[in-house]
Design goal:
This protein folds into two domains: 207 residues, no CATH class; 109 residues, Pdz3 Domain, CATH 2.30.42. It contains eleven helices and twelve strands. The strands form five sheets. It has a four-stranded antiparallel beta sheet with strand order 6-5-7-8. Strand 5 and strand 6 form a beta hairpin.
Length: 394
């Protein structure tokens, strides 16, 4: 019974999410290839042995394969999909074949076809977030206290569960996020709160404390300004984030829908913001500001997919958009075997006036494949460590 629950809770949502994202990514390549007159031989969801498939009227084999961890579009004249090397020069082609061959397309056309995969992931994220913003609506966290954390500024000031925060230092508060923004930049500064408790409106003063690294890791509650700590702020370290020590009341979350144009504008802004945040997080990992242990692999994606699915349609769609942005970004990295690696080869071709040699491309592909496999191994190792800690096996 427990095994069946794991399948339905994690494995099935994971497969659905991954299938959608792989399809979107590969569809970008497919559509641009067809637009530029390239014949597409295979459109595969997954790798390895074909499980099920069919041929369309243009001769493309659409297939589901045994290993559902990715996919590919195989274009005529592109080269072997498993080696990444164009070997079309060794295959005599007729003029008709050259006309539909990826290898014989102009450099700009080839680059556009390759870039279309990641681009489609970003466009898909915008469309999904647009639908969430304007059709389904997003749950809104009101500035109502759902929990007061012990030994924090909120408890010290006398805040109680059910209190609605009307204003801070005279600034009207309508969303919990607005409270978080004010508190986060006011560590150690006394703030005047206007509070509604039942039918009574009164004022009180609270001084947000500074967030500490240890508390943030233990409490996992820093993002919403909802915890606090007693750090000494007189050190030479940069100013720390202020935390009050309250969590929002998630039982009171009305849904708000944006207008069509407003929702689209918001979706573009959200996609841009998520992209910047993801890149910033990766940069902090490379610089050592954040632990690389936060990097997750397939198991982590499956866990989050399952949890998001339990949160309803809006939750799973938002997760789908975030994961689509991640997939688009990763594929743009200049690593041979990824789309970004092919684009880097095309850039070199444009600068040199001729393609890199087959040997250089083959060695680059092997190096890139090795790097990707090592990254996957490292992320999976992190996943298992998290599982061991979660079940007390470490």
């Amino acid at each position: 019974m427990e095994f069946l629950s794991l399948i339905t809770h994690y494995f099935i949502p994971f497969l659905l999410v991954l299938t959608v994202l792989v399809f979107v990514h590969e569809l970008g390549h497919f559509l641009l290839a067809r637009f530029h007159g390239v014949r597409v031989e295979v459109f595969s969801i997954g790798f390895g042995t074909e499980i099920w498939g069919f041929n369309d009227k243009y001769g493309t084999r659409w297939r589901f394969s045994a290993v559902p961890l990715g996919g590919y579009v195989k274009m005529f004249g592109e080269g072997d999909v498993m080696t990444g090397v164009d070997d079309t020069e060794e295959r005599p082609m007729t003029d008709a074949e050259k006309a539909v061959s990826f290898h014989y397309k102009r450099l700009g056309q080839r680059a556009a076809i390759v870039a279309a995969g990641p681009t489609s992931n970003f466009l898909f994220a915008v469309l999904v977030l647009w639908a969430v913003n304007s059709i389904l609506g997003m749950p809104t966290m009101l500035p109502i206290v759902g929990e007061v954390i012990e030994d924090t500024a909120a408890e010290e000031a006398g805040l109680a569960v059910g209190d609605r925060i009307l204003s801070v230092n005279g600034q009207s508060i309508t969303l919990f996020s607005e409270l978080s923004e004010i508190v986060s930049v006011n560590a150690g500064n006394a703030l005047d709160f206007e509070i509604q408790r039942g039918e009574t409106v009164f004022s009180l003063t609270a001084t947000p404390r500074a967030w500490s690294e240890d508390l943030g890791k233990a409490g996992q509650a820093g993002d919403n300004g909802d915890h606090a700590d007693n750090d000494d702020e007189s050190s030479d370290t940069p100013p720390k984030r202020g935390l009050l020590g309250v969590r929002p009341d998630i039982s009171v979350m009305p849904t708000e829908r944006a207008g069509i144009l407003e929702g689209l504008k918001l979706a573009v802004e959200q996609t841009y913001g998520l992209t910047v945040n993801i890149l910033g997080g990766l940069g902090e990992m490379f610089s050592g500001e954040r632990s690389a242990k936060e990097l997750g692999g397939v198991i982590m994606i499956a866990e989050v997919s399952g949890d998001a699915a339990q949160g309803g349609v809006s939750s799973i769609l938002r997760f789908l958009a975030i994961l689509s942005i991640n997939l688009g970004l990763i594929n743009l990295f200049p690593v041979p075997v990824l789309d970004g690696g092919h684009l880097a080869f095309y850039l070199a071709e444009g600068l040199r006036g001729k393609p890199l040699s087959a040997r250089v491309q083959e060695y680059g592909f092997r190096l890139g494949l090795g790097l990707v496999l090592l990254l996957m191994l490292f992320a999976t190792w992190n996943d298992f460590e998290r599982l061991f800690e979660r079940f007390g096996l470490g």
